[in-house]
């Protein structure tokens, strides 16, 4: 089905795009489609006064990491954020559906978090952790209270990559086995130590890396060899046919056989050091594993003396809605949990949490992180937990995320190039294809056109997947149903404009 809306001129819409859409109209009356209006915001930022966009572009070209890519043909020059909203230097407002790459959890500049940071800055900005200070100890106790079982010891770091680095070291120290297993299509960081564990060629340099690291086949019910319409823990299932009964995913058995094959052939004397997995793959395109896979994988790893590591960098802190941690939705308890991003709502804060037994092994040598557990970062972390609890952020992620998935699924039914809608809570992916039958990834230039249209009409979304053909929707978890209606309508119009352009 091809959408054929017409447009009226709104103050927040790009006039050129509106004119193009209108000129390409198929003659329908404006009244056939309700007008989409950007939800109101009770915050008005002060006018921007600072470095010009032109000067920023020059500096970026001359003085900033040249490998750092920039979104959009005309980059968005952001200077202010408030809750789910961002403003550029011209005063244009955007609904942020990517949250600083799944990092802003409770909202940009959330007043409670800002107040906590300001209060701590006035008391103690920084001291190394060879001295004791209150905020680290208070936050550590609050954080471990959110974790099940014997996950009681916290190592504070500054980023998800640091956390995963440390988790890999811990597993090798504790088990005495060097070999580590991950999944293809996973992203765990881009540091030299982790590059071998990140199994996306777009993030890997041509240097020796990955010694002792192996990947099993990615258990993807949409793009993998097995899986279908009964396999995911999601309100929306893939349209691939599936022979699985309602209470069991047969695809899981096949993917576990692939893991068993890696363990049988590649591990030393039947042992393994660790198994790494994201609860839902983030950078890889919001890929959800078939039900029961992680539980079965953990069992196989533990039978061989290995540790199970859950990467909750993107899925933690209520983002999946039904649970505080993504691994809880898989009915598993890891030996080590890594976390970052939403933990600090954008402030540099990350951690590894493990058991006392595993932590004790790390005391064989000194371990220290200068900024890990910084007083301000811990005060921010405590404030984030407080907001999640008091403002029912996890519940909103579940309710609003489910609603958004169901609305996006309607577009999937209507539009041939929307191949898959998936996710849980506010961890959502929309995979674009040339057609549903072949599932061929939609080419980059076509993805870019839809992406640019969406930006011009007021929503910012991410991209991911090996082919860059998955729209990643992971907004601040404070968004509302009204925001979702606006975002879905803009996305629908962006697809409509794209399809009309193809046909014209």
Description of the molecule:
The chain has 504 residues and is α/β, with parallel strands linked by helices. It folds into three domains: 15-97 and 393-503, Aspartate Aminotransferase, domain 1, CATH 3.90.1150; 109-159 and 340-391, Aspartate Aminotransferase, domain 2 (3-Layer(aba) Sandwich), CATH 3.40.640; 177-335, Type I PLP-dependent aspartate aminotransferase-like (Major domain) (Aspartate Aminotransferase, domain 2), CATH 3.40.640. It contains 13 helices and 17 strands. The chain has helices at residues 15-23, 53-63, 99-102, 111-123, 134-144, 160-175, 250-266, 293-303, 356-361, 375-390, 393-414, 444-456, 481-503, and strands at 78-82, 85-88, 93-96, 153-157, 180-183, 213-216, 274-278, 280-281, 287-288, 307-311, 336-339, 350-354, 418-424, 427-432, 459-460, 462-464, 470-473. Helix 12 crosses helix 13. It is globular. It starts with 14 loop residues before the first helix and ends with a helix. Residues 1-32 have low confidence and may be disordered.
């Amino acid at each position: 089905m091809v959408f054929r809306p017409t447009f009226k001129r709104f103050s927040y819409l790009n006039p050129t795009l509106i004119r193009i859409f209108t000129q390409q109209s198929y003659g329908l009356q404006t009244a056939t489609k309700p007008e989409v209006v950007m939800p109101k915001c009770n915050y008005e930022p002060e006018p921007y006064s600072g470095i010009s966009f032109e000067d920023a572009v020059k500096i970026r070209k001359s003085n900033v990491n040249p490998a750092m890519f920039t979104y959009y043909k005309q980059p968005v020059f952001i200077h202010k954020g408030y809750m789910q909203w961002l403003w550029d230097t011209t005063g244009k407002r955007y609904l942020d559906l990517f949250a600083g790459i799944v990092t802003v959890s409770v909202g940009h500049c959330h007043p409670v978090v800002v107040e906590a940071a300001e209060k701590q800055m006035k008391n103690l900005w920084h001291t190394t952790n060879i001295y004791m200070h209150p905020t680290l100890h208070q936050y550590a106790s609050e954080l471990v209270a959110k974790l099940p079982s014997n996950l009681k010891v916290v190592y504070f770091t500054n980023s998800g990559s640091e956390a995963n680095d440390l988790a890999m070291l811990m597993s090798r120290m504790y088990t005495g086995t060097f070999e580590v297993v991950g999944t293809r299509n996973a992203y765990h960081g881009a540091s030299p130590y982790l590059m071998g564990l990140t199994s996306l060629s777009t993030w890997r340099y041509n240097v020796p890396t990955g010694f002792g690291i192996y990947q099993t086949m990615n258990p993807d019910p949409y793009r993998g060899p097995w899986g279908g319409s009964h396999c995911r823990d999601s309100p929306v299932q893939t349209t691939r046919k599936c022979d699985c009964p309602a209470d069991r995913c047969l695809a899981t058995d096949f993917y576990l056989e692939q893991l068993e094959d890696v363990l049988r052939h590649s591990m030393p004397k039947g042992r393994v050091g660790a198994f790494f997995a994201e609860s839902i793959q983030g950078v890889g395109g919001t890929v959800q594993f078939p039900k029961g896979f992680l539980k079965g994988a953990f069992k196989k790893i533990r039978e061989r003396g290995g540790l199970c590591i859950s990467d909750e960098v993107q899925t933690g802190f209520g983002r999946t809605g039904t649970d505080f941690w993504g691994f809880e939705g898989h009915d598993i308890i890891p030996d080590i949990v890594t976390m970052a991003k939403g933990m600090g709502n954008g402030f540099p804060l990350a951690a590894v949490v493990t058991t006392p037994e595993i932590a004790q092994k790390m005391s064989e040598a000194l371990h220290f992180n200068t900024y890990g557990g910084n007083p301000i970062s811990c005060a921010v972390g405590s404030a984030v937990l407080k907001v999640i609890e008091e403002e029912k952020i996890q519940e909103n992620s579940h309710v609003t995320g489910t609603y958004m998935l169901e609305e996006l699924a309607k577009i999937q039914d209507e539009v041939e190039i929307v191949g898959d809608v998936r996710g849980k809570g506010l961890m959502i992916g929309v995979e674009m294809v040339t057609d549903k039958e072949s599932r061929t990834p939609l080419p980059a230039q076509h993805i870019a056109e839809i992406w640019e249209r969406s930006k011009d009409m007021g929503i910012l979304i991410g991209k991911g997947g090996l082919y860059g053909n998955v729209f990643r929707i992971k907004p601040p978890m404070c968004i509302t149903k009204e925001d979702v209606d606006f975002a879905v309508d803009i996305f629908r119009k962006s697809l409509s404009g794209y399809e009309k352009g193809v046909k014209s």
